[in-house]
Design brief:
The complex is a heterodimer of chains A (937) and B (87). Chain A has 937 residues and is of the alpha/beta class. Chain A contains 29 helices and 39 strands. In chain A, α13 packs parallel to α19 and α16 crosses α17. Chain A is globular and about 90 Å long. By secondary structure, chain B is mainly alpha-helical. Chain B is built from four helices and one strand, in the order βαααα. The chains are: A alpha/beta (937), B mainly alpha (87). Chains A and B meet through α22, α24 and β37 of A and β1, α1, α2 and α3 of B.
Chain lengths: 937, 87
């Protein structure tokens, strides 16, 4: 495949039914009203020269290269800023236009280095192209006058450089930073000849730049260029694939020279990202070739032994034999496995099939257990399906956006950019979060309401909002009457005085009037959409909260059309897919309960094996059973449970108690310390399959290079199954998808062929929706009627005490991903070299802690030490950290508390104490206790 | 490029996490408290249905054993649910 250059129509598309017909150089073209002349010309096949215009940005009209003549109009207007008008006759070429354009180009080139042959953008430079297009043959002004050729190059960013001498001040980078990314880190400083692009008066690394790459993408010259291109040269071929980081699931062009990946370029036709990217997907792919990658299988008898490299056959035979031996000794249910949300649907599917059919039990779970399992439970109970309701584009139609327990600018940055764009257009924003996340107030964004609730009080807040909606007569009665059930009982419950904003004000810390105002805005502000994250799910009432949000959306009629909905922002790239593929111990692919004889029968017929009808163990249940002695072997695919799961000592004790731990991963992660078999996995660049993102979009993951380990991950599972006596044979992953489609009604219409043709589809994709379903529950809920569920608030058992007076809540940061196994092996560590503890200045002061001090963070289950950063983002009494680095191991302090319905850990509420690690002359804890006011146990 | 990857952990753990309560008792009680708003019979049935749908058989067996051996450790609704599961 050659390098894929996507067409650039110059200005963005305009929506609308009304059309206008014009003539461009005698050719008629019909376009939507409001379209620019430049775009209309491009659509008719005529490219007008341009430099400052690109179709990802609004027209700017500064370069004066796109001038045209329009019959009946004076002068030579810029085609990018001139909208079409009925009957308009446009000339794009004339001697006068040619002269003007040559004049413009002469001016540009007179202040531009003439090093095209050695320039890193040679062959991919619009300035170079335009010089050719306009027929530039001379530069009459010479090069001896004042110029910018000696401007220094800013190399501070680890991934791209800013070569100021090549800048033509077209503003595309500045506009991309604002319009697309929404960060506004760049500006044009100075006037006239002194105009120059500036990262706010400092270098890029020290600026507000988030390294999303939008400016690099927009730059028409070599000014903003990937360092990899500077070092390696221009790529020569492209492979369209899908990012392996967060649940946004951005499409990228992997651009290579031979088999060497030069850069990842966001793909304009990608349904999830439409040409945008973040620092992780755009740049942080170096881990795939990091020297820490393990490429050869390894085994050892004991976790105290040294690893021994073996060939694949030995590793697979050993694994299968040991699994069978353990089953023979302890029973069929003594083994199990964990699927990975970082692998493809096809890989997940074969692992759960291996467990159900070859292991012969349902002890299969996935990392969604520790993140969005409450989403699966809550949305299935209320709406009938375990997934978000909207596509990402839907946010462009929202009038009110309510963000609950999510930090999209860090966790889901490409979607956050869409959201911020809509907010800049006028949508109102409500943020419900204990922490003042960036969205609350950032350039051109300000939340109308920030309900800064106490951790653990989500349900009380959502109930109070519903109370306001109900008692103030804001219920969408027609919608509820036609589409829902259980309303009357719910209404009686939610109207009770104990659910009023005033009643819960002291508990939640949210002023009643503010909460009432937010509820009114949500109910009456037009299309209202909820977006939420792990701040909703990772609580003892995570599932209750999901149902509470669903109740609120149904009560206000905010379901079933563009601009509304209840939308989980899912964490890992294929966490939606891993759940879809039957990774939960109680569900077969497509969220069908294992006890359903008919469904189970279809799988048994296809698989040729009897499947147990009882649910298997969830991840925490596996740990408990391991410590009790009945669970003896675990296969872990692409998940570092010893770092990511709560209460590390409990997890590692369980792992130590097992006779066999098999880890399949890219790296020797923390879990591998307790493993007996290591099976090397493949990075996303080597995979062939599909990922499903948070909007249910199934995207192709195409191999950029062959598996560096010599084996695809789906082949490993198949071979273990076969070695255990259950043949699982596929010639290609497309055959696995064909089997998934044959067994799973929501995937019935999905095939690699269709995905290659359409780009992507959103499930359900079947006979009723052959090209997929962007928005769910349009005419009715999947379960028939939407179900109101009673959601009484039950406080968590985790309380602050005299010994542990603060509440810790955890989260993630933009540049790092999950346990950091990938991002720590990239230059992203430049931004986040360590996990830190954010602590309110008041809480710090009473403990004698200064910014940058090393502190001890302790809970009833463990302690760690890390550096303190003073921050008033959290209220007094709440501290915050991330879990990206094993050296800090934040989950050493998180506890066994979990969501009542799903066992999703309560990461977001842990009672802790913080003290100086090395206080002058005394112990940290003692000093902290002395200084703190007494608090009730 | 890349940070240290094998620094010594700065962590310590304690053993008081579970407080001696069996996971099955703890989880059953956590489920039960979510159904306190319902009439007892309905609540017990709902709790039993939840446990039947989501708990692996050995967990259910352990709950029933615990319900027999230490009924006082269980929320009354969880105890009632356990009886339904036994039946």
């Amino acid at each position: 495949m050659s390098l894929l250059k996507e067409p650039d129509l110059g200005t963005p598309a305009k929506a609308g039914l009304a059309t206008v017909t014009i003539e461009v150089d005698g050719l008629p073209v019909t376009v939507p009203e409001g379209t620019s002349v430049m775009r209309a010309a491009a659509l008719s096949g005529i490219e007008i020269p341009k430099l400052c215009a690109t179709d990802s940005l609004e027209a700017f009209g500064s370069c004066r290269l796109c001038l045209v003549e329009i019959e009946g109009r004076r002068g030579t207007p810029a085609s990018c800023t001139t909208p079409v008008a009925e009957g308009m006759k446009v000339r794009t070429q004339s001697p006068k236009l040619a002269k003007l354009r040559q004049g413009v180009m002469e001016l540009y080139i007179s202040d531009h280095p003439l090093d095209c042959l050695t320039c890193s953008a040679n062959g991919d430079c619009e300035l170079q192209d335009m010089a050719g297009v306009v027929g530039l043959r001379q530069v009459r002004y010479g090069y001896s006058g004042a110029n910018h050729l000696a401007e220094p190059t800013d190399t501070s960013n680890p991934y791209f450089q800013f070569e100021a001498s090549k800048c033509i001040a077209c503003s595309r980078c500045v506009r991309a930073c604002g319009e697309i990314q929404g960060t506004f880190a760049l500006t044009i400083e100075g006037r006239g000849f002194n105009s120059k692009v500036s990262a706010g008066g400092t270098d890029f690394m020290s600026s507000e730049c988030v390294s999303c790459g939008a400016c690099v993408q927009a730059c028409p010259t070599a000014t903003l260029q990937e360092k990899s291109v500077v070092q390696l040269g221009m790529p020569t071929r492209s492979v369209i694939t899908t990012c392996a980081y967060c649940g946004v699931g951005c499409s990228f062009k992997a651009e290579l020279r031979g088999t060497e990946l030069v850069r990842m370029v966001p793909y304009k036709d990608g349904g999830a990202n439409e040409g945008h990217s973040c620092v992780k997907g755009r740049f942080a792919f170096g881990y795939a070739t990091h020297p820490d990658r393990v490429l050869t299988p390894m085994i050892r008898e004991s976790i105290t032994d040294e690893w021994r490299q073996v060939d694949w056959e030995t590793a697979i035979t050993y694994t299968a034999r040991r699994l069978r031996e353990i089953q023979a000794r302890y029973g069929v249910g003594a083994i199990g496995g964990i699927t990975s949300s970082r692998t493809t649907n096809e890989e997940v599917y074969v692992v759960q099939k291996m467990i159900r059919a070859a292991f012969g039990n349902n002890n299969v779970d996935t990392c969604a257990r520790v993140c969005h399992s409450p989403t699966g439970y809550g949305l299935k109970q209320t709406f009938g399906t375990s997934a978000g309701t909207q596509d990402f584009r839907s946010v462009a139609k929202a009038d009110v956006i309510m963000v609950i327990g999510a930090n999209p600018t860090d966790g889901h940055p490409v979607f956050a950019s869409r959201m911020k764009r809509r907010i800049r257009e006028g949508a109102k924003l409500i943020v419900i979060d204990p922490r003042r996340i960036d969205l609350v107030r950032s350039p051109h964004i300000e939340a109308t309401h920030h309900l800064q609730l106490a951790p653990g009080t989500n349900v009380a807040v959502i109930n109070a909002m519903a109370h306001v909606v109900l008692t103030e007569g804001l219920v969408a009665r027609d919608f509820v009457a036609e589409r829902c059930e259980g309303f009357e009982e719910w209404a009686e419950f939610i109207a009770r005085p104990e659910n009023s904003p005033e009643a819960v004000e002291e508990l939640t810390g949210v002023p009643a009037e503010e909460l009432r105002a937010a509820a009114r805005l949500y109910a009456t502000g037009g299309n209202a959409a909820i977006y939420y994250g792990l701040g909703v799910t990772e609580h003892s009432q995570g599932s209750t909260m999901v149902m509470g949000m669903a109740n609120l959306a149904m009560a206000t009629g905010n379901i079933g059309r563009e601009g509304v909905g209840v939308n989980p922002l899912r964490g890992q790239n294929n966490v939606q897919g891993s759940c879809d593929m039957g990774s939960f111990p109680h569900e077969l692919p497509g969220y069908r309960h294992i006890s359903d004889d008919v469904v189970r029968g279809t799988f048994e017929e296809m698989w040729g094996r009897e499947i147990q009808s009882e649910p298997g163990l969830r991840i925490p249940n596996m740990f408990d059973a391991a410590l009790e002695g009945s669970f003896r072997a675990l296969y872990v695919q692409g998940e570092d449970i010893a770092q990511s799961d709560p209460n590390t000592s409990h997890v590692t004790a369980a792992l130590r108690a097992m006779e066999l731990v098999v880890v399949q991963d890219l790296f020797l992660n923390e879990t591998a310390r307790f493993a007996h078999v290591f099976l090397p996995g493949t990075s996303f660049l080597e995979k062939d399959g599909t990922f499903t993102n948070a909007e249910r979009r199934i995207n192709r993951v195409r191999p950029v290079m062959p598996p560096r380990t010599g084996k695809h991950e789906w082949q490993i599972a198949c071979e273990i199954a076969e070695a255990m006596g259950y043949p699982m044979r596929y010639a290609h992953p497309s055959e696995i998808m064909d089997e998934i489609a044959a067994l799973t009604p929501t995937f019935a219409g999905v095939s690699f062929e269709k995905l290659d043709k359409l780009g992507s589809v959103q499930w359900p994709c079947n006979a009723a929706a052959p090209e997929g379903t962007p928005i769910m529950h349009v005419d009715g809920f999947v379960r028939g009627k939407g179900k109101f569920v009673l959601t009484p608030f039950v406080p968590t058992r985790e309380r602050s005490t005299r010994k542990f007076p603060l509440i810790l809540t955890t989260g993630r940061i933009l540049t790092q991903y999950n346990v950091g196994a990938q991002t720590r092996r990239t230059a992203n560590v430049a931004w986040h070299p360590e996990d830190v503890l954010e602590i309110h200045p008041h809480d710090a002061e009473v403990r004698g802690i200064s910014d940058g001090d090393e502190v001890v963070l302790s809970s009833r289950v463990g302690q760690t030490s890390l550096r303190a950063v003073l921050s008033d983002r959290m209220p007094v009494g709440v501290v915050y950290t991330t879990f990206h680095h094993p050296v800090t191991g934040a989950n050493v302090v998180t506890t066994e508390n979990s969501d009542w319905a799903t066992n999703c850990p309560e990461y977001k509420v842990t009672a802790v104490q913080v003290g100086l690690k090395n206080p002058p002359g005394r112990q940290a804890a003692t000093r902290a206790e002395e200084l703190l006011p007494a608090m009730a146990d | 490029m890349g940070a240290e990857l094998r620094m010594e952990p700065r962590t310590e753990t304690r053993t008081e996490s579970h407080g001696g309560i069996s996971p099955q008792i703890r989880m059953a009680n956590e489920i039960a408290v979510q159904f306190h708003h319902q009439p007892p019979e309905e609540a017990a049935a709902a709790i039993a249905a939840h446990i039947r749908a989501f708990w692996e058989p050995r967990m259910r067996a352990e709950l029933l054993r615990r319900a027999e051996a230490e009924p006082q450790a269980l929320d009354p609704l969880a105890l009632a649910a356990a009886r339904l599961l036994r039946g």
